[in-house]
Amino acid sequence: MSKKFIVSIDLGGTKILSSLINSEAEIISKVKVATEVKEGPNKIVELIVNSFYHLIEENKITEENIKALCLGVPGTVNPFTGIISNAPNLLIKDFNIKEELSKFISAPILIENDVNLAGLGIKRFELNNKVENMIVVFIGTGIGAALFFDGKLYRGSTFYAGEIGHIKVNSKGAFSSKSTLTTLELSASRTAIVKAIKKEIKKGKKSLLKEFISNNKTIKSKTLANAIESRDPLTIKYVKKASITIGTVLGSLTTLLNFDTIVLGGGVIEAMQQFMMPLIIEAFYAAVLPECGKNVKLVATKLGDDAPLYGGVELANEFVA
Question: 210: which residues sit within 8 A by CB, 6+ positions away?
């Protein structure tokens, strides 16, 4: 029986987005469920398995039609063994998810870091493979990156390449009046922005987001975007500072690695692209060595949440004959 489909899944800290993709690289069906991180890794396996079978049953195909299940994980993974070394947002460490999924699914199972998977999707389906040296950065609850050199995904010697969120940055002038060493993720992720705003509100500063904090509501990227649109000063202050930090780090990395393309994505960029991108670009050019930065294409992805799903197509092409 012809293996015409892949199931591509983006495993996130809050949701599991699963898709069925046909041989023409068209997403024909999706299903989204909450991750239920606190229930442990075996519960996550159960949710993935249920999503997999929901997709094939809903579309009246069999498992024999599936070329591969491709799974993007927000953490450090070995794509060859299927071991998740560390995925803090999933509360998972040293867990062989490929082995566990194989107990329930007979189709080939492929595992990759989620931003690496998104990068593969962007490179092929958005940029038509017309890049050589590229960094793809996704900014959301955390911050991660995918690196491409000479047109190929670079995973690193121990599969840790792309952990841009853990790069050290100086927080002076961003989130503190004092000069302290922190990380990009602790300075510029949605989590960091919200934490800084909350701290200011608790000190008595006015903000449209006060009601969210008072009622213990989650402040999502869209909430921040709405606050910016309403000219909330605290939100503007901290999203602006995050943008400058991101642009500065990207400029420094480009001076080191001489990228030709930089692509930004994730919930924060998707929600606040119009506000953030000009600030990021300005900070980028202020930081980068002019000779390295003059020909760089710096853009936001248009694929959104679908980027890692499309990346599954490329992963399947790499690992399954």
Answer: 201
